[in-house]
Amino acid sequence: MKKAMLEMYNPKYVDDAERKTEIVMNEISVLRDVGTSEEKIRDLLVKRHNMTPTYAQRCLDYKPSSNTVIAL
After folding, report:
1. d(CA 53, CA 70)
2. Fewer beta carbons within 10 Å, N or C terminal of the chain?
């Protein structure tokens, strides 16, 4: 367990986690744009990204704060 905690502070781990989050959020956006149901998106996230259904639902429920700055 100690190794896992240290790994979380590894810059490579952080970059990988941020990249995976970006990929998942982009995938959700695209699937919503083409009219895929929330239930189907959740099932796809579970299968494609090996997520638990609960975590997949949290990803679907995530709404960026209004303070989030988006660079164009």
Report:
1. 29
2. C
- Model confidence pLDDT, tens digit, residues 18-45: 888 888 999 999 999 999 999 999 999 9
Count CB-CB contacts under 10 A for residue 3: 6
HEC readout, the chain: CHHHHHHHCCHHHHHHHHHHHHHHHHHHHHHHHCCCCHHHHHHHHHHHHCCCHHHHHHHHHCCCCCCCCCCC
CA atoms within 13 A on the CB side of 41: 22
